[in-house]
From TrEMBL:
Alphabetical list of InterPro entries matching this protein: GntR_C, TF_FadR/GntR_C, Tscrpt_reg_HTH_GntR, WH-like_DNA-bd_sf, WH_DNA-bd_sf
SMART domains, alphabetized: HTH_GNTR
SUPFAM superfamilies for this protein: GntR ligand-binding domain-like (SSF48008), Winged helix' DNA-binding domain (SSF46785)
Pfam families on file: FCD, GntR
Keyword Isomerase on entry: no
Keywords tagged on the record: DNA-binding, Transcription, Transcription regulation
GO molecular function (one): DNA-binding transcription factor activity
Domain of life: Bacteria
Taxonomic source organism: Sellimonas catena
Segments forming domain HTH gntR-type: 5-72
Name listed for the protein in its UniProt record: GntR family transcriptional regulator
Length: 211
């Protein structure tokens, strides 16, 4: 039983990573046989993994039981980035209004250091970027908001990869975040938020829409 659980868990994490890093792109049809061949394991752990991925909304099934990687529509992108700007915009303002700009500058800097270290791997960079954004909304200390963010991180990661592939430059984004941190330490909300909004809301959305 332990071996079966371990294999199913391994299959789940491998398939999920390949969906998130676009190895299995949106709209791609998957089969248990194909995945079993790819992962060099039997169909039983694959089937278990697919049930979990379906419950997370990463794959969809139709009436004919075909399995497809969930598409990302333009409406998905616009709605997610709208939600991101609304929540993070309010969170960023709260950081300054509560007098925590310097504290959060160091917390965000830790995430940016990780982003810089991952600059050569866009998937790992995007994972680090999502953690930077999670750090911003953590100012609310609100578990419900955290759950909302966690629920759509899978979509954000895939959208972020499209953004990088279509115009968002990693090194430039990293350098701009360093500037944002300096503005935070000088308590300059307007300049700091301008960088966050331009690089991570506006350019991110427009680049993702070019998918």
């Amino acid at each position: 039983m332990a071996d079966k659980i371990s294999l199913a868990d391994q299959a789940y994490h491998t398939i999920k990573e390949r969906i998130l890093n676009l190895t299995y792109p949106p709209g791609m049809q998957l089969t248990e046989t194909m995945l079993a061949d790819d992962l060099h394991m039997s169909r039983n752990p694959i089937r278990t993994a697919l049930k979990s991925l379906h419950s997370e909304g990463l794959i969809v099934r139709d009436y004919y039981k075909s399995i497809t990687v969930k598409e990302i529509t333009d409406r998905d992108i616009r709605e997610i980035y709208q939600l991101r700007e609304l929540l993070e915009g309010a969170a960023f303002k709260e950081i300054f209004q509560s007098g925590k700009a310097e504290e959060f500058s160091y917390r965000i800097e830790e995430r940016v250091v990780r982003m810089c270290a991952c600059a050569g791997d866009i998937y790992q960079w995007e994972l680090a970027d999502t953690q930077m954004h999670m750090e911003i909304v953590s100012v609310f200390e609100n578990e419900r908001i955290n759950r909302i963010y966690e629920n759509y991180l899978n979509e954000v990661i895939r959208m972020g990869l499209y953004s990088v592939r279509n115009g968002l430059h990693i090194n430039k984004a990293n350098e701009n975040l360093k500037k944002m941190i300096r503005y935070m330490r000088s308590n300059n909300y307007e300049k700091a938020y301008e960088i966050l909004r331009n690089d991570h809301f506006l350019i991110g959305k427009s680049s993702a829409l070019k998918k």
